[in-house]
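This part of the workshop introduces the protein records we will be handling. As an example, a complete record with its sequence and its structure tokens follows.
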Amino acid sequence: MPEQELTPAQVRRAQETVARIQGVSSCQIVTDGRGEITEVHVVATSGKPPKLVARDVESCLKAELGIDVDYKKIGVVLFAPDGSQGATEPAAAAMEEFPVEEHASRFAFHCVNVFVSREGTRAEVELARDGVQAFGASSSDNPAANAWEIVAEATLRAISELLDASTRLCLVGVLKIALGDASAAVVRVDTVGSRSTKSLAGCSIIGGNENQTVVFATLDAVNRIIGKLNFKSSIEYRIR
């Protein structure tokens, strides 16, 4: 991804934005002489795994401020007291920094477009996985239809382009919720297999492009089980 040159004021705002994430107590962003991010150090007190904390940081910076950060530059420190009770201060504490390595085969966002006309609303989403592009589209004849649901459905159809027939992805709902002084998009997806149904939820802080945020929230849900999905052994390319 292209590097971005940030001013000191932009760095401070980015640090303050990350520090507002639930479970994050502080953030320090290190830049080089040109203002490009070289390291992101996050201290977290939540019970989330470091990978999920880093994903929240990456999504928050992208959605809230439009800042792209390579996940390999994000280090997460989890502060965990030893759990002893009755003492005024913990007798010992453990601090460990985890290098965050995302699954190499996660779905990545490329673009989203929403078209509204007298004929209705249509959303188109393009994703990629392992260098293979996937396209999904969804539409409604009602121009006043919930555009977020149409975008989420288009995202699931793009993902399904690469899945085999053993698993279906069903959109249950999309909500906008308040998180402190920010808002977030929350998407629930059910994965329906031959023997079981599993419910997933994804979340993304709302930034400047709400449709893009909905795609991020949908991917956040599905990417949680990416290693358990069955993909097509070969891909048929379609002319759109």
